[in-house]
Amino acid sequence: MPAGLGGAIFAVLLIVLGIIFLIFVVVLISFFRLWLRALLSGASVGLPSLVGMSLRKVNPTVIVDSRIMAVKAGINLGTNELEAHYLAGGNVVRVVQALIAASKANIELSFQQATAIDLAGRDVLDAVQTSVRPKVIDCPDPSKGSSTVAAVAMDGIQLKAKARVTVRTNIRRLVGGATEETIIARVGEGIVTTIGSSPTHKKVLENPDTISKVVLDRGLDAGTAYEILSIDIADVDVGENIGAYLQIKQAEADKQIAQARAEERRAMARAREAEMQAQVVEMRARLVEAEAEVPRAISDAFRSGNLGIMDYYRMKNVVADTDMRDSISRLGEERKEDKPI
After folding, report:
1. Of 81, 149, 144, whose CA–CA distance to 111 is shortest?
2. Residue pair 321/313 in contact by the 8 Å Cβ criterion
3. Helices in the chain by DSSP H: which ranges?
4. The pTM is what?
5. Domain covering 135-242, topology
6. Domain residues of the chain, as ranges?
7. Given pLDDT bands bounded at 50, 70 and 90, which one contains residue 338?
């Protein structure tokens, strides 16, 4: 091999080795502090693992810090588990903090459960904290509308109640369990049912704790992510007299119905009156028509010899006498009417 070719190959090898050494130095500088911190904390992580995390687009600082927290709390978590949760889009730091809090509070919580809760969109650390320190839920939620639940007792008086529900998280039912809105809705339904079944509103005002007892006995936390510890009635106010209001409305409706029926009967009476008047006019027309036939019948009787002149005058005298009697009788009736009582 010529001396020149051997020198060129040697130079290339030196350059390659120099590049590899430079890369090693850069990697060492980049991950040395992180590697050293993990080593001194008793949660050692190899340099190849740190480089692999960087290549897999995993933040090595998050994984190392989370592992250090877990090891210091007595929880042994491998980097592979933490990386898998990170790549799945989970919050690794929050999960580790939740595991530490659960361990200190003697709450049974595995890494698989914590990651499942986190990936389900729930705040796993808040869930553990709520298990240790129960929280109070206002029913109804004042930020979403009315601040009281309105219900009507059997005597028609409206009552407005406000309850406070003390709950703690049930870790086992957190995944797939109903949220606070379900608790609020169920408690509100129980308040309405209890007040509505009370004979009088005074009974509820005398013993408001009966509402909480009845509601609590119904097992409203079934299927939810919480366990109800207590239901306290914070306030009960007297509202409107709904029963009287409904009775007034019913009376007005009955009045309108009666007026409509009376108007219907009045219209029918007017129609009947108009019909009778038409019949009277018709009968008078027939009477006039019949009376018009009398002179013709008389003239026919004269022509046929069935009626003589004396008979005709006799008939006229009878008619005149009848008219006179009618006039006298009418005059007597008018005097009786004008005579004071």
Report:
1. 81
2. no
3. 3-40, 47-55, 60-72, 79-87, 92-104, 111-119, 124-132, 180-196, 201-206, 209-216, 242-304, 309-338
4. 0.57
5. Tetrahydropterin Synthase; Chain A (3.30.479)
6. 3-132, 135-242
7. low
